[in-house]
Amino acid sequence: MSRAWMPHGAARREVGPLLRAWRERRKLSQMALALDVGVSPRHLSFVETGRSRPSAELLLSMSEHLAVPLRQRNELLLAAGYAPRYSETRLDAPGLDAVRSALQRLLDAHEPYPGLALDRCGNVVLANAAAQRMTALLPPALRQPTLNIYRASLHPEGFAAATHNFADWARHLVQDLGWLGESTGDAELAALAEEVLAYPNVAALMASPPPAPDGTDGLVLTCELQIGEQRLTLFTARAAIGAPRDVTLAELTLELFYPADVASEALLRAAATSA
């Protein structure tokens, strides 16, 4: 069996504690989950304590009710001694040509505004020309081997140095990363959160109390970047692929940036024209 399906050592862990951890993460009682999947609370208790081995169908049913991501569903199946049910296809594989082309067309149609496709950890897997123009401003160390949106935005030598409202924007990114790690139980996301929290600028920010709302906040949180003498103010929208059955596609997120004011739109259009 390929080691690609054992990223977090799930095959060496008991399925019962893993299921219990997911149930507790979703704040469900044994009674509630048992009723949802149509088994007795006693049987579910036996599964969680290792006294009973769940069938693959029961594991998938519980995973569905607990909203377990596809990657972690495979890990549960492996931990119980079953083969994984969901493929994990490289985005550049021929089988994903149609999806990859569609995503790239969507990003290119978003020009002259930046658009990115991100994997589960925020690594950039596709980008349009506007996004590439922005990321070219980063030092090479933050662009290689793979640009990560959290590192690029929070590292002291990255966009953090040019973010006018870093306190607000950084708190949003840290909370977003923490929520993703907590909701998925993903060890790589947890490691990434630990890394960015150790950045001196982020550590200092998170050690200070958050500012109290003053009633003057806008409708959406924006990222305000100082580009030379000009201010670029952006807000984002996110999208995902509907009904994915592949781990790679399930974990993809489109991050589309929009100008928040007329001056920012003019700046982006001017950059596209000059390019």
From TrEMBL:
SMART domains: HTH_XRE (SM00530). Residues 19-73 form the HTH cro/C1-type domain. It comes from the Bacteria. Gene3D superfamilies: 3.30.450.180, lambda repressor-like DNA-binding domains. InterPro entries: Cro/C1-type_HTH, Lambda_DNA-bd_dom_sf, MLTR_LBD. This is Helix-turn-helix domain-containing protein.
